[in-house]
Amino acid sequence: MAILSEEKIFSTAEAIILSKGINKTTLSDIAKMLGVTHAALYKHYKNKEDLLQKLALKWLDNTSKDLFEWSPKKGVDAEIALHDWLWLLHVTKRNLYENHQKMFLLYTNYIETNKDLIKDHLQHLAKKVEEISGWENKGMAVIVAFTYFHNPYFAERWNQGDHLHLFEQVWSVVSRSH
Length: 178
Known about the structure:
Layout: H1 6-20, H2 27-34, H3 38-41, H4 48-69, H5 78-99, H6 101-112, H7 115-133, H8 139-145, H9 163-177
């Protein structure tokens, strides 16, 4: 019997999800490809939903790692730093959409349907905004104001020529209202 690691299970699940889609992927498919019994997966996950949630969270954590580890260069004004981080947020999401579109769409669609996952992610983003800017209790408002630039719903519009100009307009409103 094969030794199961989280990484091995995740990579196998991702491969099957890419070929079949989330809805058609079963724990039996994953177990078969891993060379284990269906019951063996239940030692690691309660059910398919549990596996998908952990897989989506891992993807989100991995793809957001640079965002949450980012810190401004010494001596940079907090507002400039926040502007730069918000642009990094947009560029990160846009690059994921452009370079890993199938996984981006699969995971973001899954995450968007899970209120707890999206709430946690947005709160994490809002906390980072407050950490960078020093704007207490305004992080969520900033994240909401920049929804167009990070929410997957708008991904198909991110390559339109006016998105940089629009970003700067939104930034102008947000930075003046502080």
